[in-house]
Write the structure tokens for this entry.
Amino acid sequence: MKRTPGKILGLALRHLFKQPDTIAYPAGELDIDARYRGRICYDSTNCIGCNLCVRDCPANAIAIRNVGDRENKKFVCEIDLGHCIFCAQCVDSCRKGCLRTTPDIELAVLRKSDLKVHMP
């Protein structure tokens, strides 16, 4: 079997002047689709504490707690990003639209305890 450098050389020359398929992420800007399921945001103004999002979460990564009294209900959300699988099932099941996904993808932390996010 005889090898010819012509095939490899032609391929190398074509790719030498071609734009790269990857991006330089820290230096460049990411173009993320609006439907991307990144970090989950919580808006407590409309929350009624029905806990449908907690019930429907397959990873048990979300908790809604009442921190107010019986008359003045105020809810806080705790999401464990270490357990979350970013399926957005909690967003789909929230009837009041209190939960939404964001295109935020920078979720890396140094300590595991920082993965538990408390949202008032």
The chain has one domain: 31-119. The CA atoms of residues 37 and 87 lie 7 Å apart.
